[in-house]
Design brief:
Radius of gyration of chain B: 28 Å
Largest sheet of chain B: 7 strands, mixed
Distance between the termini of chain B: 78 Å
Low-confidence stretches of chain A: none
Number of helices of chain B: 20
Radius of gyration of chain A: 19 Å
CATH architecture of the largest domain in chain B: 2-Layer Sandwich
CATH class of the largest domain in chain B: Alpha Beta
Largest sheet of chain A: 5 strands, antiparallel
Shape of chain A: globular
Strand order of the largest sheet of chain B: 3-6-1-13-10-11-12
Strand content of chain B: 25-35%
Number of domains of chain B: 3
Number of strands of chain B: 29
CATH superfamily of the largest domain in chain B: Aldehyde oxidase/xanthine dehydrogenase, molybdopterin binding domain
Oligomer: heterodimer
Distance between the termini of chain A: 54 Å
Low-confidence stretches of chain B: 1-8
Order of helices and strands of chain A: EHEHEEEHHHHHHEEHEEEEEHHH
Strand order of the largest sheet of chain A: 4-5-8-6-7
Chain lengths: 291, 801
């Protein structure tokens, strides 16, 4: 399990990195925390001829309050996000999701940009960004563009980033007033990728009617799955047992996971329903508790 | 405390002496095979089969050889032209066992690199040596090979079909061993039983997963024609023997060392092709050679284990007293059987466990398939048979509406029946007699540690009433430990008076250096710092057996004792001469020998060792040989019987099937504990491995014989955060079979968890009348049980409405 030979480049700035990827476009890979790419390279399942290491670009690691949203640099470590007051106070769902990512040593290396660009269907951040309608900022020598989460994730381990683009920043809308959120997942071991996980955020009006709902699932499709139909069934209601039960059923029906050695497709579907029910209940309780 | 030189009363045995091994390990100064760097060393990598079963056509290594930095490449035919296969019978069974158990054994030899056929995914078909492992792996990609696929035999049942292709054509069948034995009236006793139940139990395939994978470094010295081999193994003397055979070198010209070894658990308990190939190549190329198995190779190629199917029938009366057990089981041995029928032999001997069951009959097939070879893993046949038997006991209890604990108490051998003649023969050829113990007391203590049976049942009823599910899982076993045939020890007292101990034991983290020093310090009445222990080096002792099968504390202590006795007898003669008294007036004390009752009349081991030297002015009596040195071999009369009762409380989340272990208790008895701290760690480590096997670890194959769990992304090891609250309680019933009263305990912890968890889940889900008779215990299966029950209930409600 030794990687095939590759060249190694170490840019110090974003423009340098952008130039390098343009030069080697097609057979170069960025390496961020390396928590997924390095094992893939050791198995020789990934064989980039050039590796561009982003770990020495200080400008890519930050968490900033930008009014309507918070901006997180692509090379920000998951551990830093976990410990960030800004994230916990303004995007609590992101904080919650981070706590579910692997184990401390992995969170200390892993980055938000790496997780999102890698787009593992079972990973926590892609589903969270999809639920929160976050924006990804991509740069290339051709310029900069902002991609909405719904357009960003594009199937198994695939995104709409072009071969010469680098993800530099994630822009996450702040949680509205009177909102509550929860990230709940189930995995065979603590810290594993989820068999099924749900990112949920709800916003209530003064009468505790759900006026906003954002729901996405991980681990149960080719990519993160936005549960639109479940949202439609819940929006405008108060969360009764019946509504919850309907949401559970709708979520079960909404996903089409594949089975593998860890869980059958049917079990993953069932778990999607259970996680949806639990995440919704917790999110609403948190929203009510805030009032 | 350890500095007090006279601390002999009570001695070191029984003290939790800190591990002397830990200083180096904690300072990062341990030395594992991967740490060994020699000048000019080449690195080996193996091309491994992507197919489960195929004929090998041409293997072209020329392109691999053309790569810069590659020094050697060989196909299977290149290797087979120079080296014989490993003898299929690495482990021989004694005549006494073959006399009592019907056997029909055909074990295939294992080619070091096959030339004609690959028989499992991961079997090597070519090898290269290069300046680095990176280059070696580049070279593997250039090897061109033609495979002609053969029908794969992905499991034992397909290999047993009449028209199944043969894994080894020369055997004429896919069965490596057929075993049969019986006790009492055997299956004939079934007819007179008021109740009979039959079930199939499946124990899935998982394996030893040591933190350090396997690895070998070898260096040949042409001047002295000697070979030094460092292998991460549990059996240095076996490795030396097989290299000697293959290379036709005298054993004494080969030194085999196991440096620090990061876990073995049975997976390193026999000789592998790589051990021999690396040694061979070092001699052939006259350069040091290194091969370190990577994790993917380990999962594919190091021995797997478990993988049994049991068909059990059990006959019992209204009170739950079991009269007869019969079982017919198959062991999926994979493509080769490096340890022969050893696992099956263990299973046969351990089925009846702590119970007094008059009639028993069993037969077994060890089946060759296109899976990775199967060899013992911590427990070695006992977790498998224990799963079948202890599930069956719970099923009997449920059938009669009795508590499983009550049924166990009714069947257990009482302490007053010890020693208890089981009526079977152990695989050392000796009739099985449980030597000592109080089995019911162990179970009582386990239940008490969970609050007592009444409290547990009340909590369970309350939980059910609230729509929650709490279950009690029990699992009891006995374990033959300290098996022969022998272990060796060499003791030397050098002129500094220090005690040098070498044994054939081969630790992998157990703490042998500490424990053997405790024994020797007590035997020699010296502070433990005066004892130097070397292990796992064939240069230090001619014959050794190795550390497998929960045996080293029992067998090595016996060898240390015999060798010490021999030297001490001589030392007393010399001391008597020095002190001018009769030997009868002497005693060992204060790091030497003194006259009883006269404190000043004393000579130290240093003084005696100097007096014993050959040459001028020695102080030996006439007729006494020079030197204080002896090598002895302990051949235990038979095994000592450790045992345990396990109990766990488990909660089930019926929505997801997820289970949570509230508490897991093992009450364990391994006789006198030499080092209670280490004993505790051994049992706990075993329990965690057992829980891993029960819930997470799985070597899953598809129908083509492809392994689906070839990395740690899919082969799930329990991590620290998966370990539930565990309590280990020790009883100490001495074994009457050795002077120290010790029994073995290395494997114990791993035996019961799979059945304890399965029993707990079934107990929690009794309202659903569910049975889980296979491992691993999966949440999705639990969820399906409750979901189906809900559905049926709804259907019934609909019908009534």
């Amino acid at each position: 399990m030794k990687p095939a030979s590759f060249s190694y480049l170490l840019p110090k700035t974003v423009p340098e990195a952008v130039k390098m990827i343009a030069e080697h476009s097609g057979d170069a890979r960025f390496i961020a925390g390396g928590q997924s790419l390095v094992p893939m390279m050791n198995f020789r399942l990934a064989r980039p001829s050039v590796l561009i290491d982003l770990n020495r670009i200080p400008d890519l690691s930050y968490i900033k309050d930008r009014g309507d949203y918070i901006a997180v640099g692509a090379m920000t470590r998951e551990r830093m996000i976990e410990n960030s007051d800004i994230v916990r106070d303004m995007c609590p769902l992101v904080h919650d999701a981070t706590l579910n990512i692997a184990h401390l040593p992995i969170r200390s290396r892993g980055t938000i940009g790496g997780s999102i660009s890698n787009a593992d269907p079972a990973a926590e951040y892609p589903a969270t960004m999809l639920a929160l309608d976050a924006f990804m900022v991509a740069k290339s020598e051709r310029g900069e563009r902002e991609i909405g989460a719904a357009d960003f994730f594009d199937g198994v381990l695939s995104t709409s980033l072009e071969a010469d683009e680098i993800l530099t920043e994630v822009r996450i809308p702040k949680a509205p007033a009177n909102s509550g959120s929860a990230f709940i997942e189930i995995s065979r071991r603590q810290g594993d990728y989820a068999l099924a996980g749900i990112a949920a955020q709800v916003t209530l009006d003064d009468d505790e009617n759900i006026i906003g709902i954002q729901l996405a699932a991980c681990g149960v499709g080719p990519g993160p799955v936005r549960l639109n139909q479940v949202e439609d069934g819940v929006r405008g209601t108060t969360l009764t047992a019946e509504i919850l039960s309907n949401a559970k059923e709708a979520a079960t029906a909404a996903v089409d996971p594949e089975g593998d050695v860890h869980a059958t497709a049917a079990y993953r579907r069932k778990l999607t329903g259970v996680m949806t029910e639990r995440a919704l209940r917790k999110a609403v309780l948190r929203a009510v508790g805030k009032k | 405390m350890l500095d007090e030189p006279l601390r002999q009363s009570g001695g070191y045995i029984g003290q939790s002496v800190p591990r002397r091994e830990d200083r180096n390990l904690l300072l990062g100064k341990g030395q594992f095979v991967a740490d060994i760097q020699l000048p000019g060393m080449l690195h080996v990598a193996f091309a491994r089969s992507p197919l489960a079963h195929a004929t090998i056509g041409t293997v072209d290594v020329d392109s691999a050889l053309a790569i810069n930095g590659v020094h050697f490449a060989a196909s299977g035919s290149d290797v087979c032209a120079e080296l014989p296969p490993i003898n299929g019978m690495q482990v021989v069974t004694p005549q006494g066992w073959r006399d009592r158990v019907d056997t029909d054994i055909l074990i295939p030899d294992q080619p070091l690199v096959p030339e004609d056929r690959v028989r499992y995914v991961g079997e090597a078909y070519a090898m290269v040596a290069a300046d680095s492992r990176y280059i070696a792996e580049d070279a593997l990609e250039q090897i061109e090979v033609e495979f002609e696929p053969l029908p794969p035999l992905p499991d034992a049942e397909s290999a047993l079909k009449d028209d199944a292709v043969l894994v080894h054509e020369q055997l004429g069948r896919n069965v490596a061993a057929l075993l049969h034995t019986r006790k009492g009236d055997g299956a004939d006793a079934m007819e007179s039983c008021p109740h009979r139940l039959s079930r199939r139990f499946v124990h899935h395939r998982y394996a030893a997963m040591p933190m350090e994978t396997r690895g070998v470094v070898a260096e040949y010295d042409g001047r002295t024609d000697t070979l030094t081999v460092w292998s991460s193994t549990q059996v240095v003397h076996w490795v030396r023997r097989e290299i000697s055979t293959a290379l036709e070198m005298p054993e004494e010209r080969i030194r085999c060392v196991a440096p620090d070894v990061g876990g073995g658990f049975g997976g390193k308990g026999h000789v592998y092709p790589e051990d021999i190939l690396v040694a061979w190549l070092a001699k052939k190329l006259r350069r040091p050679i290194k091969w370190v198995e990577d994790r993917h190779e380990h999962i594919l190629n190091a021995a797997h284990s478990r993988d049994n199917i049991y068909d059990v029938e059990i006959g019992f009366d209204d009170r739950g007293k079991i009269h007869v057990v019969t079982s017919s089981f198959i062991v999926d041995s994979g493509a080769y059987t490096p340890v022969g029928a050893g696992i099956a032999g263990n299973s046969i001997a351990h089925m009846l466990g702590p119970y007094d069951i008059p009639h028993y009959e069993t037969d077994c097939k060890v089946v060759l398939t296109n899976r990775t070879p199967n060899a013992p893993y911590r427990g070695a046949g006992r977790p498998e048979v224990g799963f079948a038997m202890e599930r069956a006991v719970d099923i009997v209890a449920n059938h009669l509406d009795l508590d499983p604990a009550v049924v166990r108490f009714r069947n257990m051998i009482p302490p007053e029946a010890m020693p208890y003649d089981v009526g079977l023969t152990y695989r050392d050829g000796v009739p099985m007699v449980y030597d000592s113990g109080d089995y019911p007391e162990a179970l009582r203590r386990a239940l008490d540690a969970l609050g007592g049976l009444e409290v547990i049942r009340k909590r369970q009823k309350d939980a059910w009433a609230n729509g929650k599910y709490l279950g009690l899982g029990l699992g009891c076993y006995v374990e033959g430990t300290g098996v022969g045939p022998f272990e060796g020890a060499t003791i030397k007292i050098d002129s500094t008076g220090k005690i040098m101990v070498a044994t054939g034991a081969c630790p992998q983290g157990q703490g042998h250096e500490t424990v053997f020093a405790q024994f020797a310090a007590d035997m020699w009445h010296v502070p433990i710092e005066d004892v130097y222990v070397t292990v796992a080096d064939t240069a230090d002792i001619t014959l050794g057996y190795g550390t497998i099968a929960s045996r080293s504390t029992v067998t090595a202590s016996g060898a240390i004792k015999i060798a010490s006795d021999k030297i001490q007898e001589k030392a007393l003669t010399i001391a008597a001469n020095m002190l001018e008294v009769g030997e009868a007036d002497l005693e060992m004390r204060d790091a030497g020998v003194g006259v009883v009752g006269i404190p000043d009349m004393h000579v130290t081991w240093r003084e005696i060792a100097c007096a014993a030297k050959p040459g001028w002015d020695n102080q030996r009596p006439i007729g006494v040989d020079a030197g204080l040195e002896a090598t002895s071999y302990y051949e235990p009369p038979t095994v000592t019987w450790a045992y345990a009762a396990n109990a766990a409380l488990v909660w089930i989340d019926t929505d997801t099937g997820k289970l949570e272990i509230e508490k897991y208790v093992e009450v364990h008895d391994a006789g006198v504990l030499v080092n209670p701290g280490l004993a505790d760690g051994q049992v706990k480590g075993g329990l965690v491995q057992g829980l891993g096997g029960a819930l997470l670890e799985e070597l899953a194959y598809d129908e083509q014989g492809q392994l689906l769990t070839g990395s740690f992304a899919d082969y799930l090891m329990p991590t620290a955060s998966d370990v539930p609250p565990i309590e280990v309680l020790h009883m100490e019933t001495p074994s009457p079979l050795n002077v120290f009263g010790v029994k073995g305990l290395g494997e114990g912890g791993a035996i019961a968890p799979p059945v304890v968890i399965a029993n707990a889940v079934c107990d929690a889900l009794r309202p659903f009348k569910a049975e889980l008779n296979s491992t691993p215990v999966r949440w999705q299966d639990i969820a399906a049980i409750t979901e189906n029950a809900d559905r049926q209930q709804n259907m019934r409600a609909d019908q009534e409405a």
